[in-house]
Amino acid sequence: MEELVTNLHMHTTYSDGSGSHADIAAAALKAGLDVVIVTDHNVLVNGKNRYYQEGDRECLLLIAEEIHDRTVLPQKNHLLVLGVERELSAFAADTQNLIDLVSKNNGICFIAHPFEVDLPIVGDPDITWEKWQCTGYTGMEIWNGLSELKSRMTNPFRMLLYLLFPELMPKGADLKALDRWDLLTRQGKKVVAIGSSDAHQVKFKKWPIHFSVFPYEFHFRCVNTHLLVSEPLNGDINHDRRLVFEAFRDGHAFVGYDLPASTRGFRFSAQGKDQNVIMGDEIALDGGVTLQIRLPFPAACQLIKDGEIFRSFEGRSMYTQIINQPGVYRVESYTHFMGETRGWIYSNPIYVR
Length: 353
Known about the structure:
353 residues; alpha+beta; TIM Barrel; Immunoglobulin-like; 2 domains; 7 helices
């Protein structure tokens, strides 16, 4: 399998971001990304899918969309829509119908910032997802960079601290999102977890001081979704776009916090009597299944079953666990950075049926 470090959910000047598509691509190349997916609010910008190159580095930029109902205040229930080649924002008022249309158009969709709080200091509202009765979405964000920032800027001192030292801010996936994700998968639903930046690169201009708050490149070095694809990208936009979106659809992915140390190389797989599968796949129990975890380097690690810690590991980079119970198994790993223990890796599940 080929691994693609991917960042999605960001905004340009077509909505409420400050940079162009070329600015985002340049930042992605500097951060070492393989794929970046732009999702402006309620606008599907045509003609921007392309490869960007700098030296021997190449990055694929793809266009998607973040859709929400602009007629309702506050504007909650944001949906990231990927892989659809027509504008669907006109259908935002009926969320279930929107999700159904995404499916009919061979697209995929993810609940954005499911538990985002308000930020009264700057007048930013709570834009939590409330339409949990809806079905058919592909997955949900369990870690959104901007949402985490809003949750931590609880007073002016913290705001100043994180503006000056942004690397202190990321701590881990949203606990409420993790709980909801585990609840949904326990109910037998396949729900793909992603991590996103929600980057805007807000610019402040107060003469003579000009500066950007949480620039694109910083976000791109932090919370990424690593995809596992069946073959290398070959430079053909249609071919490569299909590979990327299929990996998202199948849950062949993990969320990695790449600032402390690159999470590239993590793997979570399972072997059964006649099957070998990876994250996002199902496997038949059929007498027993061997789970294998490979970390990029030794770190603390937990095997989660149906939302509860099944086993904890410490001090190695390779772990094996034989199981004889059905369930939804996933992995969390933690690392120490800037004086704190922080979430490092969150795998998608292997569904043992």
